[in-house]
Amino acid sequence: MHDDGFFxxxxxxxxxxxxxxxxxxxxxxxxxxLAEFAGGGxxxxxxxxxxxLALPLARKGxxxxxxxxxxxxxxxxxxxxxxxxxxxxxxxxxTTLIERRFSLVxxxxxxxxxxxSQRAQVACFINAARHLEPxxxxxxxxxxxxxxxxxxxxxxxxxxRTETHWGVDEFDVVNQNFSSHHIWIQxxxxxxxxxxxxxxxxxEFDLMARLAGLELKGRWGGWKxxxxxxxxxxxxxxxxxxxxxx
Length: 246
What we know:
Strand order of the largest sheet: 3-2-1-4-5-11-10
CATH class of the largest domain: Alpha Beta
Distance between the termini: 37 Å
CATH topology of the largest domain: Rossmann fold
Shape: globular
Order of helices and strands: HHHEHEHEEHEEEEEHEE
Largest sheet: 7 strands, mixed
CATH architecture of the largest domain: 3-Layer(aba) Sandwich
Number of domains: 2
Number of strands: 11
Helix content: 25-40%
Radius of gyration: 18 Å
CATH superfamily of the largest domain: Vaccinia Virus protein VP39
Number of helices: 7
């Protein structure tokens, strides 16, 4: 499928406005860690989007390419300084294959959850492994399912409530699915947007990695290599081609 999915022109136009993902204190540590694992080699970003991480990574001298399903997001990337120079293939990150090999493939900001079946998530890991050169790494950043906050029998958790935005997650704990519902309020007008996701625990991602021939090399509670604990709300995990010896 090569349409824009849920990330159409309206979403792409405001995607970079979310300060919590675009702030220098967020982007900087992410780019530093990605550059560390790139090790001077070529890098591939699954779901490169508007270039939030790819562009500053390229400015550090890293050779970056991307795969992206949404043409609208890529169009936003192309309008930015340096965005026209980054090669991007339009396609699904679980199935699209680029013939080159990379030292690092990465997938940031919960995007693995956009694949709403276990089969698709496993396919994404396998596709990442296909793109790795010997010794290469696959890195994801994803939230820890907040089910400890969910009262028994309840399905709704609010994650944001301001004068201009309400956000709630609606969970289906039987099938490991959830939908994020957003309502934006501006000048008395309301705009609603919902996106489906599939969550998985770190142990399940480790099993997906094993099926793809990858083994865990590191897991942290954030981009600064903070310890991953029972209180962490996300993890940055890195796997390497099994038996690479590095």
